[in-house]
Amino acid sequence: MTSEDRLKRIFPRLHSGYFKITSEPDNYNCVAWAVQDVKKWWQPLFYWPKEVPEGYSIDNYIALYEYLGFERCDNSSLEEGYEKISLYAKNGFFKHVSRQLKDGYWTSKLGEKEDIKHSYDSLTGDMYGGIVVLMKKRI
User: According to the model, what pLDDT value does residue 50 have?
Assistant: First the structure.
């Protein structure tokens, strides 16, 4: 089974949209990738700012990104001068974050696995739940 086939099995919505593997597995996670830090694994008990409440609730991850200068926004459209992230949750717990690229597609680090370029909501499903908040930061 190819890596692409494996990912389509895990994330069935990848079948209906564009996606491309953009890197091999590495030692950073989606939380770090969203802020373009490939040196740390951002997660409570590993690396976490002391000013932000620890725990895996979606509210704590929203607080993390607010601490890092992001604010909530109401759409996923490409917006000049901003970078955007989408936070996924399931049953109130954070599961994933993706970052919008300059071409309007999104990029995600899939746990310890690859980075991929993908359509906006193509990772929605059983694994990560759904997108519950969009945030943006001026660049």
Answer: 96
Query: In angstroms, what is the C-alpha Rg of the chain?
Result: 14
The reply to whether the predicted model has a pTM over 0.90 is yes
Beta strand 93-100 with 106-109: parallel, antiparallel or unpaired? antiparallel
* Closest to 96 in 3D by CA, of 126, 51, 70, 74: 126
Quick check: helix, strand or coil at residue 14? helix
Q: Say what the pLDDT of residue 25 is.
A: 83
Q: Indicate the burial class of 125 (C-beta count within 10 angstroms; 0-12, 13-18, 19 or more).
A: middle
Edge-to-edge strand list for the sheet holding 93-100:
19-23, 115-118, 106-109, 93-100, 82-90, 130-138, 71-73
CA angle 9–122–105, rounded 5-degree value: 130
| Domain locations in the chain as residue ranges | 3-138
pLDDT tens for residues 96-114? 999 999 999 999 999 888 9
